[in-house]
Design goal:
Strand content: 15-25%
Number of strands: 6
Largest sheet: 4 strands, antiparallel
Number of helices: 3
Order of helices and strands: HHEEEEEEH
Structural class: alpha+beta
Length: 125
Amino acid sequence: MPGDNGAPALAAARQRRPQRQPRPLPDLTALFATMASASPPGTVPLTPPAEPWQVRYAGRFRRHGRPAAGVWTAGTVGCPACGRQAGPWTVTCDWRRLSLGCPCGVVIHEHGLAFSEVWLLLPDL
């Protein structure tokens, strides 16, 4: 047909064509599986063990959020027991999570802080 340029036939062919499924990256999958697995007995681990650390911090920790585009929020982390917001905090890291210890004896694990929001404020270890 004049003026149709085969557009309907092209659209029909696209609908019949099977969609390509993303293929996993076997090399990266194997690499990450090896890195995450435990070392066999009697061998050296792929990564050295990370030692936990603890440091005192006398300031405040601010939790930042972005609930919507162009909107930023900030709140100061406080102790749920005594309400203290300024330190001295005892910051403990076992490389899986950061814990904040208040002088009143309460240890806060669910503070909502990102690792960088704590790490960047601390003195050099």
